[in-house]
Amino acid sequence: MLKSLILFDLYSKFKKELKRARLGFPTWRVREAYAYFLFAYFFGWTPEEVDRQDAELLDRML
After folding, report:
1. Are 14 and 34 in contact (CB under 8 A)?
2. Angle, CA of 50, 6 and 42, to the nearest 5°
């Protein structure tokens, strides 16, 4: 659950910075936000993987 929230937050920040870049704000912030998102994605934080891990954790807790 926590990983999915982090991944969603990183993706949201990337989309926000992308919109700002279209308005003329610095593009380095877009690259930085995208780099953080790719870093998380590279280490397996895909939505499907996060859902699978959450299901396993829930099974262990029950």
Report:
1. yes
2. 60
Closest of 31, 30, 32, 39 to residue 7, by C-alpha: 39
Cα(58)–Cα(48) distance, integer angstroms:
15
Average of per-residue pLDDT across 14-40: 74
H helix and E strand count, the chain: 3, 0
Q: Specify the amino acid at residue 50.
A: V
Within the chain, residue ranges assigned H as helices are: 2-22, 28-42, 47-61
pTM for this one? Answer: 0.42
Q: Is the dihedral of CA 20, 32, 2, 42 positive or negative?
A: positive
